[in-house]
Amino acid sequence: MGTSIHVYDHHNGWDETPGVKTWCATYCVDTRKTTAAAIVWRERLRGDDTSTEWLRLLSEKSSSEDPAIVERFGLLAALMQPQHYAQTEAVLKALAMGFAMVPEHQELSRWYYSEHVGRERKLAAGAQVLFAKSGRRVGWIDLRKEHGFLLVSRLVVEVHNVQVVGTVIRNAVLLGGDSIDRGMDLSFLHGEHTIDGVRLSVAGHKSPVRISAVEADIDGDSFVGAARRLILDRL
Fold it and tell me: Which residues, at least 6 apart from 41, have a Cβ–Cβ distance to it below 8 Å?
């Protein structure tokens, strides 16, 4: 089916009227034949040899039936982890120039699927299931003692059949569903709340939203407890 995709940088002023953006465009596309990532690649970054291959591969899915795509997706996902950051530039240049994956790249891809994904699944399996006052099932996972970049909320939704997940990180609680464009609209939480004397600020997308402490010196456990109560009381 045909649809219009409006592309703009959401990192600043995401809640403003799209027309005020300085970097934006609208495309009429057949959604059966392309993706938003592919549009950005084709229309905006195809002339940048260090990023075109990266964006093309990210527009594919790790569940692809093509083993080459699965392998390269694993490589790109591995580069998102801090211990592998130093290799990012060299790998992207090699991919952009069409070079075949070398053994070191293949090992990174294998590491992602065999170790990192397994770690994420283990963490998700150990998440709590809480019940909001409305009866809604809420996943809850505390990642403050973990390291690296972890994407576990989607897995928590999948494993525990919850509608929304609260993910505790070092300086905030992220609340959302299995993706940015599906699930509950949480924008009704935007603004400032005071729970048990702790001032909380909620901002972000419709989903996820980011809950953070207004006072920088608040005790971490006190903040997390207040954020948890806010979620369970308001959902």
Answer: 52, 55, 56, 59
Structure tokens at 191: 């603004």
pLDDT bucket at 14, cuts 50 / 70 / 90:
very low
- The pTM of the full predicted model, rounded to 2 decimals, is 0.70
Q: Which of 50, 25, 52 is nearest to 38 (CA)?
A: 52
Collect contacts of 118-123 with beta carbons under 8 A, ≥24 apart: 119/150, 120/150, 120/151, 120/152, 120/155, 121/155, 121/159, 123/150, 123/152, 123/155
List the structure tokens of 35: 């993706």
Residue 119 to residue 125: CA distance in whole angstroms: 10
Axis-axis angle for helices 103-111, 88-96 (nearest 10):
120
At 144-199, the pLDDT tens digits run 999 888 888 888 998 999 989 999 998 899 998 765 556 678 889 999 999 999 99
50: which 2 tokens?
């260090």
Rounded Cα distance between 176 and 166, Å, is 7
Residues 93, 108: Cα–Cα separation, whole Å: 16
Place of tokens 């005071």: 194
∠ CA 147-118-158 to the nearest 5 degrees? 100
**Sheet holding 191-195: strands in order across?**
128-131, 137-142, 164-168, 173-176, 209-213, 198-204, 191-195
